[in-house]
Amino acid sequence: GKGNWKGFDERDLLLTYNALKVLEARYLLKDPNTLRYIETPQMMFRRVAKHLANVERQYGRSESEVKQLEEKFYKIMSELKFLPNTPTLMNSGTRLGILSACFVIPVRDSMITPNGEGIYDALRAMAVVHQQGGGTGFDFSELRPKGDIVASTAGVASGPVSFMRIFDVSTDVVKQGGKRRGANMGVMHVWHPDIEEFIKSKTGQLKDTQLQNFNISVGVYDYFMQAVERGDVVPLINPRKTKIADWDYYMSKARGYMNEEWIQEVILSELEEKGGTVDLAESKIITIDEALVIAEKENAITQWVNARNLFDEIVKGAWDSGDPGLLFIDTINRRHPVWYLGKINATNPCGEEPLLPWESCNLGSINLEKFVVDGKIDWDGLAETIRYAVRLLDNVIDANRYPLKQIEEATKKTRKVGLGVMGLARMLIKLGIPYDSVDAVYLSYQLAKFIYYHAFKESIEIAKEKGSFPAYDAKLYKDIWESAKDFYEILEIMGIKDKPSDYVKKLTSIVDKLDFDKLKEDRIKYGLRNATVVSVAPTGTISIIAGTSSSIEPLFALAFIRNVAVGKFMEIDPLFLDYLRKYELDNPEVVKKIAETGMIGDNPFMPKSMRKVFRTAHEVSPEYHLLHQAAWQQWNDSGTSKTINLRSEEPPETVERVYMLAWKLGIKGVTVYRDKSKSQQVIYFGIKK
Ligand code: UDP
Prior knowledge:
The chain has 2 domains: 10-97 and 352-526, Anaerobic Ribonucleotide-triphosphate Reductase Large Chain (Alpha-Beta Barrel); 102-347, Anaerobic Ribonucleotide-triphosphate Reductase Large Chain, CATH 3.20.70.20. It is built from 27 helices and 22 strands. The strands form 7 sheets. Strands 1, 2, 3, 6, 7, 10, 13, 16 and 20 form a 9-stranded mixed sheet that branches. A hairpin with a 4-residue loop joins strand 4 and strand 5. The longest helix has 29 residues, at 438-466. Uridine-5'-diphosphate (UDP) is lined by residues 85-86, 101-102, 134-135, 180-183, 348-350, 352, 363, 537-542.
């Protein structure tokens, strides 16, 4: 019974079989000599809580205050209301020091550089981050194109894609010894001369062989998307040949999200350090046309291509293999609260963290399912959990042991944290709201707003005690809610006429009372602890530990086969099983039949009420996938990771529509995955293959 065994706790019984399997395989500490477990799941939560509460000592908190906070941290984790990202769970209080999941590493056009930003410096940084369970993102656009000259050797450059292959192999090698497989994001901006090779680097014959440890994304700009719509040509630019150090910098500047002050103070001083560029020292805000004139004079334009054709290639690739995705570089930078620190060119592997060079971010997610009580939302409980979660995440920055000093410096300058969610789909089911309904999108929108408000508020509270993040500038900091699209604007872009019901409006009416003007006043008065506070991560593993649906995704399938290292398992969604029991339909024959397709939407033998709410990823139209992503992105100062799942039979035109709409909806990045488009996929529908 309880209390008889050291470390036994009834809270362990909250963990599902799958959660225990995941925990024992990777998370619970073992004695390195005997390989015996030296902790239980509760001891793991305790280890993390203690380690992160201990940070408070540095800030002069008393012993009892530290202990109290440890109890709060322990409580929200052990009740599975909140979990930090995998590296925090695995590494807190151990010899390995990385507690964050997301990193962006710069890659300059040199083998190595004195300040450690060359191609092989990046490779080295990647290896140490992967070893400890972090994921890395890179923008390869600064590398000179294939066939270009290499002055020092009078040789010929092999181009960015060939270097990416080295990063890929290194990832493979390091994962053998590491705690989890390293993941990468490879970005190339649409103006690079090698863009076509990049777009095709993971499709067709190469899709199951090349760059398997990379997600790839094309960095696109408003000017490019507009050119696609109009059928215009766009230039390809050789980054080596232009004096404009970062060519697209100026393309973006021309579209006005950077103000004059910033250009004077930040860009120019930065350029001076780098050696300066005459043309820009003289210009203020240059237009795209002016930038082109400069590039032309420099002979940096290698070619003019039809934007439409390039876009078609991107769409074809994504339809065929899921890669490339798009990153909307202008949207990312326009809505970056600390835009005055420079331009963001890349994200972490799954896209939820657009970061400056060398920045890292630690994540954690709230389990929304736990906040449905008697058919209502426990808003007070949610707000309280948000508060402790933000404090915990902020402490992770101090508890982290950074593998490289550049990462430590960049991370501590902005102190970005990313509070996200999991269990949205299950929350919806418990509230009786179908995922693909206007009500569900409205709920997403309101939840995102509520979580952002309370996370931001807590970050102000922490700033009162511990100070603002060092790069905080009360005047320049941009409040992202001022550029959040209205809910009805989102519906309009999508061409949806339905309105949310009174039921969901009443359910979320508390959100309408939040006072963002007051929040801004407080920020200006007291400061802010974290440059960003939220981020919607995929929660691939922590949602299994929490026993809920992942992130903001719909259920994948009600019953399906999961391919894991040790074999194939048939899985039934436990919430679905509860409902089957309620209708006395929980017999093996029924379940087996359902597992053939994984869904019940068009099964006339299933109760109507169940068919309505148990919607799965491939039954939900791409429009509703996008709507949820758009709703969460409006109240998010980082990114929203989401897969727009498509049925196998969807044509390329669907991908085209999805990519265009994503841009218009103000989403920061978009990825599609068409069922069965790759031979290796982690989850398959049905038992009939
Ligand atoms: N990540 C990684 N390798 C993996 C899974 C995730 O490096 O195998 C990183 C990556 O940056 C990703 C982030 O962790 O974007 C968050 O992923 P997720 O939410 O799925 O992680 P979890 O905390 O659930 O393990």
